[in-house]
Amino acid sequence: MEVTVTNLDHNGRGISKIDGKICFIENALPSEQVEIEIITEKKKYMEATVKNIIKKSDDRVVEKCKYFTFCGGCNIMHINYNKQVDYKVNKVKEIFKRMCKMDINIDEFVKSEQYFYRNKITLHVNNNKIGLYKEKTSEIIEIDECLICNNKINQIYNILKKQDLKNIENIIIRSSKRTNECMVIFEINDDINFDFFANLLVNSVDTLVIKKNDYYKTIFGKGYICEKLDKLLFKISPDSFFQVNTEQAEKLYFKVKDYLGNNDNVLDLYCGTGTIGIFVSDKCLNVVGIEINKYAIKDANENKKINNISNINFICDDSSNALKKIKNDFDAVIVDPPRSGLNKDMIHELFKILPKKIIYVSCDPVTLARDINYLLEQYNFKKISLVDMFPNTSHIESVVLLEKK
Question: Which of 80, 103, 138, 264 has its Cβ near the most Cβ atoms within 10 Å?
C-alpha cells in the first residue's frame, strides 16, 4: 500500500497512520510518499518496511554505506546531517515537553564528524563468518569496512576475516585515536591456536587478549591500551567502559567542567574508570568517585597515578548504598548512570545530602527526563547541552545542570 509519512519516532522510524492505527516505517522520512510492506501487526501499532519511494524528501541523502538497509547500526544515515541535528534537538525537546511539562532551550549542540569516529567494535563469529548482526537477528553480515569505525579497526578486521576463526565467539577491537594504540580481544569457547594469532597480529596491534569464562589472558603486549583526553592519559582495559567517540568525549567532559564551575567537594557517581572525576579535578578541592565494578575502580586508581592526581579518591560500592554511608558535605554531584538512569533510592539519597549543583550526564533522554521530573522537587533546571556522540544513529548524549532551589 502507499502511505504518506508525517514525522519520525524517537528511534528514527517514519510514522504514518493506517485505518487509525499508527505504523512505524523503517527508512522513511517526513513528507515522503512511500510504498510499504507491513511486516508486523500488533493490537495498537504496525511495523513496515519501504518497498519503493514514490516521492522523496529533500532531506534524504544517498547512504555511503552499502550495508545500511540491513545492518541497522546507523539507522538515520539516510538523513542530511544538519537535519539529523534538528531531529535530535526536537526529540529531546519533545520528550521533556511530554514527561516534564517543560519547554526547554538547548544551551549548545556539539556536532561531530559523521564517519570513522568509533574507537571500538564488537564483531560476531559463527561458522567461520565474522561481521555484524543483521538488524533484530543473529544472522551475521560480512562487511568490507564499517564507515563509522576508525581506519585501524577496519584494517584489523580485514586481516581477521581471512582466517580460520574456529572456537571464537566474538572479537572486540579497540583503537585509540591520540596514542594510536590498538587492542584485540578474542572471546573464545574452547582453545585456539594462540601462537598463530600472535604471529598474525604482532606487527598490527599492540596487545592481544583472550577472554574465556570471564577470565582474561594477555597473549602479548601490556594487556591494555591508553588514550588521551586533553592533557590527561587514561588506561583502557579489555572490559573498561570508555566513550566510543574520543573527540566528542573530550568535548562532553569540557561541558561538564563548564557546568561544574569551581567547587570545593565534588562527588562523582557511577564514575567508571574515573575519567570525568579526573578530568574536572583541577577545578575542585576534593573529588570522591564511586563505582560498583571493582575492575573499573582498579583502572580508576591507576589513572589517578598515571596523571599524578592527588585530590581524588575512589570507592568501590553501589552508588546509592555508598551515599548512605558518606558523611561529607558536597558542593556538587556528577551523575553518569547507565541507560536505565537513576533509581528512586538514589534520588532519595541525593535529597538527603542536597548538593548545590547536580550535573547529570545521560545517554537516554527518556530516563533523563523521567529522573529530572523527580529531581525538580528540590532543584531548578538551568541548562542542557547535547553532544552528538553517535552520528548517523538516533542516539544522543545530554548534559544537564540542576541547581538547588
Answer: 80
